[in-house]
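Posting for a labmate who doesn't have an account.
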Amino acid sequence: MAFSSIDNDNDEMLSEINMIPLIDVMLVLLIVFIITVPVMKHAVNVDLPRASNERSQDKPETIRLSVDASGSYFWNAERVEDTELFNRLALAGAQTPQPELHIRGDKAVRYERVAQAMAAAQRSGVRKIGFITEPSP
């Protein structure tokens, strides 16, 4: 805001900053900070424990189904008959989580015996089937 004096003949403007509104704003801010800072300091300090929300997954067992050169089935190195194989596969298919079925077929066995084992696994509901081979030299 500018004021001019009447008794001054030259047209010089008197310019001063009015400090009263600035002081009022600063006092209001000071009062707000005085009131709010103690409220923030009255919180209870608690050392919270650390926890993880990840579910631990139990790794399912792995079933090794081997077919030897004569066409016999072996369930984890134990010889089983064809009917018993389907019953064991049905039990494995009903488990949660499902175990992995690793089929190891002898290279001299007829493909039909391996295909029968795969079909029995499919009918019993086993979904995780893998083939185990030897790496070539």
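Reply:
Got it, the structure tokens are right above this. The chain has a mean pLDDT of 83.
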